[in-house]
Amino acid sequence: MNLFSTFPPRQSLLKGTLAVYNMAIRIKTFTPNEIYFITFTILGWKHIFTNDKYCDLVYKWFNCMKDKYENKIYGYVIMPNHLHCLIKITDKSSKLSILIQNAKRFLAYQIVDLLSEDNNIKLLEFFKEHAEVKKGAKHKLFEDRYDSLIIQNRKFFLEKLNYIHRNPCAEKWKLSENPEGYKYSSAPNYILGAGIYDVDVMDF
Q1: What Å distances lie between residue 15 and 9, 11, 84, 103, 187, CA to CA?
Q2: Range of the domain at 36
Q3: Does 64 map to a domain?
């Protein structure tokens, strides 16, 4: 699917250089039928998304959004303690703040269940200590804030997609030597033609 009239060639995804384009808009109000670059983070930057069973929870959330709202996932990376994604949010969807709030709730309950199965007492205690007890919460798993940008330009879309895909290769992470080598990402979809999770690959 091509949302833009023209777009840089697919080979641009494989190059190491990026230009910076100020073509995203941070706003407090929700505008439907736009592509959003979204980031949210595990509380205290604790490492949670480290294997298939934890990352599968994110894919379940993606599926829920697609099935219920017809939202489209154009790109993503699941890092050990945070998530970046490029999502087109339709007018059938909840507004962005509610969508993220529901995502955190959806993920938190299931993460706690998995941590209990794994007998990870240390992390469970950490999340319990920060719970908003007055609101009836037993654990708090995510940082309060999230970051969101509306993508209004094809060049900025490409910049963010490249950023997402190269995140695991960054010096501080060193999770993969190349973007397509990290499986919890849409990089294999764009570069190799298939990945662990099917995304709506943007035509170039």
Answers
A1: 11, 7, 20, 33, 13
A2: 10-95+143-191
A3: yes
Number of neighbouring beta carbons within 10 Å of residue 54: 20
Total residue count of the chain as it appears in this document: 204
179 contacts 187 by C-beta, under 8 angstroms: yes
Residues 6+ apart with CB under 8 A from 26: 148, 149, 150
Q: Domain with 19 in it: what CATH number?
A: 3.30.70.1290
Q: What predicted TM-score, i.e. pTM, was given to this entire model? A: 0.86
Residue 181 burial (10 A CB sphere; 0-12, 13-18, 19+)? middle
Our measurement of the distance from residue 165's CA atom to the centroid of its chain's CA atoms, rounded to an integer in Å, reads 11
Q: Does residue 162 lie within any of the structural domains? A: yes
Structure tokens at 192: 């190799």
Q: Are 54 and 115 in contact (CB under 8 A)?
A: no
> Dihedral through CA 7, CA 29, CA 140, CA 173, nearest 10?
20
Number of domains the chain contains: 1
Q: How far apart are CA 67 and CA 117, in angstroms?
A: 29
pLDDT in tens, the chain (204 residues): 445 443 444 444 443 333 333 444 445 578 999 999 999 999 999 999 999 999 999 999 999 999 999 999 999 999 999 999 999 999 999 999 999 999 999 999 999 999 999 999 999 999 999 998 777 889 999 999 999 999 989 999 999 999 999 999 999 999 999 999 999 999 999 999 999 999 999 986
